[in-house]
Amino acid sequence: MPGENLTRDEARERAALLSVDGYEVALDLRSAVGDGGAEPRTFRSVTVIRFRCNEPGASTFADLIAPSVTAVTLNGRDLDPGAVFDGSRILLEDLAAENELTVDAQCAYSRTGEGMHRFVDPEDGEVYLYTQYEPADARRVYANFEQPDLKAPYRFEVRAPEGWTVWSNGAGELADGVWRFAETRPISTYITCVVAGPYHYVTDHYERVFEDGTKLEIPLGAMCRKGLAPYFDAEDVFLVTKQGLDFFHDHFDYPYPFGKYDQAFVPEYNLGAMENPGLVTFREEYIFRGKVTQASYEARANVILHEMAHMWFGDLVTMEWWDDLWLKESFADFMGTFANVGATRFTDAWITFANRRKAWAYRADQLPSTHPITADIRDLQDAKLNFDGITYAKGASVLKQLVAYVGRDAFLEGARRYFKRNAYGNTRLGDLLSVLAETSGRDMTVWARSWLQTAGVNSLTPQVLLDTEGGRIAELAVLQEAAETHPELRPHRVAVGLYRRTPEGALERYARLETDVEGPRTVVAELAGAEAPELVLVNDDDLTYCKVRFDETSLATLREHLGALTDPLARALCWSALWNLTRDALLPARDFIGLVLRFAGRESDIGVLQMLHAWANSALVHYVAPQWRATGERLVAEGALGELREAEPGSEHQLAWARFFATVAAADHDLLLLKDLLDGAAEIDGLVVDQELRWAFLEPLAAHGMADEAVLAAELARDDTASGKRHQVRCLAARPSAAVKAQAWAQVVESDALSNALVEATIAGFGLPSQRELTAPYAEKYFAVIERVWRERSIQIGMDVVRGLYPSYQDRPETLAATDAWLAAHTEAAPALRRLVLEARDDLARALRAQECDAAAAGR
Fold first, then answer.
1. What share of the chain is helix, strand, coil (3-state, %, to 5)?
2. pLDDT-based confidence at residue 386 (cuts at 50, 70, 90)
3. What are the tens digits of pLDDT across the range 20-72?
């Protein structure tokens, strides 16, 4: 891949040598609009860095990835760019105690979402720019020392096309054709930011008066492309923003430190969002063009609050190196839900966390690439891949456990001391543990070793012994297990809930006890003598991070009465546990699908319902025995259509079932119904088929040969927007034709003409589970090209290709053997590439085990 891979050792050596006093960055973006000819490739970037060196006479390097460098000046000496610049680094020799480096370069516009991304809106031809850097792509826009512990203040100035507005981290003003921005506080390179273009911009204002009488005023802004302005509900974005600022001011006792607070919703974004201080960037899909469920609004609020928490955890106080990425991402992930519940209308957000976020963590923690929350990050490629379910969702889960362990007040007081002691600085694990030890009075080293410095997930199973009459508990114990590869048994603070059915048939909790679980078997003595339960939930209220298992009685109760469980969080936890049993080949996938068909229609929480739809589809695609797949597809489609027709007209549940039905529709009569709903020849009372739902219906039609290129072109004419183009590209690649698949493969693998968003859309349409025979020839091709792709393309595109084109739907032992053969023959391949292949292999091996379990169920 282009660009050198900075190692941790190199970063530590440079940090010991240098301290940075400040940057002045001047960008000339007037080339962005082009001149009607070829697409513009570069822009001018001039950077002045003032820095000190602890060892005069020493040598080091600055980072820059650029097509060319015009001039380099160090302490008044002109250096030969051809001699000192190798395409990614600028050699700096014979440093003085105080230094000034000036670099004049031509940097490249990006189409991959890395660096300075350039997007042309197909709807109106307008050009939009934004930057995205994490972990190390600021060097694609200006020369710098690209590591998080060399913080400095920044001054940006930008020349832009006439009529554009430009934003950066600090407040800006336009004078004499130049946008000049206020100097930032000391921050890391990866959270500097520039957004430029004819964005639709809305303003608001936040004000807070503290107990000492001081007043804090924060200008608020929110922006999106002009084409999305009709759908932009900025008032709701501002509402959540103000609620979040109030919440964090109440709990952090440290005023927001970065002046203004802009939020930009930008096109073709690789991430959910990025915490640039004063200018947070989000993927524009959080602006909803059609009807969505409340789960979508809750998810957006969670992301807004997650990024806001970063203003303190990550921006004000930053990890020293990516080993301690959890110091920002785990905390922000936890705080996003914590604030959502505590400050907004989404008071049930912990249910979503238990059901959705933790599912991501459980999967990541069972992959061969699992790692401790405090990871061993050797270089930048390691760092890029560690923005994963461990660092985010497991870390957040462990912090939730920590709050139960030390107490909410001690946890928040520890955070407050952490901010005040380390403001604008960099920290390691020990810096946080020391303040938590102070505020809680507990020795944090044992907890940290078990939870932060070991990998893997524990399973907790209830063991219930009844008295001789069978009416009461004689002994209840919790059994703890761990995988052989990660045998750590951890201390867990859990709530054990006992449930029985009421005379009316509801399954309700009648006893609950919080207790500490340690070692392989923990007796919960306090529950001895309680009435015999029909269901034991060993992680009630979701206090700890574990896989929940059930005893035989509890599992039998859920098979018959899961829908009668009245508490929504308990129900979500049971669904999550049943899904983990399915993934672990302990519950036949057809049984899980049967539970979804029987009970999902009663699910009140829309986020849980949509997660069940996703899980049921995964079970059908990956985990059922192949010989039962057609039967399963028919049953699921029939069940989804039945629930769609029974759902309350116009409700979000109706919308969720409509989308799920489109996902699983395969029979001719189901596809004809989708076509009739599109054409208006059929109606379902209350269901509005808006533009987004039209595309959702068109994809299965395209995939089954019932919507050809002309139909998709007509739909694009109806929705000639950036969003419409992405949908059309996905549907075009989904068509059941060998020629279509060959073209899609070539566009992604052999060419770099597509932007990141269209690469993603093409991959999504290429590899559909219903087209296993069509894509079978590409399994061998995949292993032949991935090393070249990884070497030649950007890391983001490399990740998309290696993950997205892995032949997972060729779910046969032969595919597993081919994967093993590639791994054995490529032991020297980039570790990050091998990690992606190993993860894909593990998912496939898990699917094959689940299929064996499901096939065995057929003989019961």
1. 50, 20, 30
2. confident
3. 999 999 999 999 997 666 778 999 999 999 999 999 999 999 999 999 999 99
How far CA 805 is from CA of 140, 257, 702, 810, 819, in Å, comes to: 27, 44, 20, 11, 13
List b or e across 396-409, with b for residues whose CB sees 16 or more CB atoms inside 10 angstroms: bbbbbbbbbbbeee
Tell me, letter by letter, the H, E, C secondary structure of 649-715.
CCCHHHHHHHHHHHHHCCCHHHHHHHHHHHHCCCCCCCCCCCHHHHHHHHHHHHHCCCCCHHHHHHH
What average pLDDT does the structure give for the chain? 96
Centroid of chain to Cα 565: 30
In angstroms, the CA 88 to CA 689 distance is 50
Tens-place pLDDT, residues 708-737: 999 999 999 999 999 999 999 999 999 999
Give the separation between CA 351 and CA 349, rounded to whole angstroms: 5
Identify whether the C-beta of residue 753 lies closer than 8 Å to the C-beta of residue 720: no
State the Cα torsion 672-678-681-684 to the nearest 10°.
90
Pairing of strands 215-224, 261-266: parallel
User: Under a CB-based contact definition with an 8 Å cutoff, are residues 762 and 744 in contact?
Assistant: yes
pTM for the full model? 0.96
Q: Is 307 a catalytic residue?
A: yes
Residues in the chain: 860
Q: How far apart are CA 670 and CA 292, in angstroms?
A: 23
Tell me which of 134, 146, 268, 307 is the catalytic residue.
307
3-state class of 798 per DSSP? helix
Q: 524-569: per-residue pLDDT in tens?
A: 999 999 999 999 999 999 999 999 999 999 999 999 999 999 999 9
- Quick one: three-class SS letters along 360-378? HHHHHCCCCCCCCCCCCCC
Res. 860 pLDDT band, cuts 50 70 90:
low
Asked if 14 contacts 54 with a C-beta cutoff of 8 angstroms, the reply is no
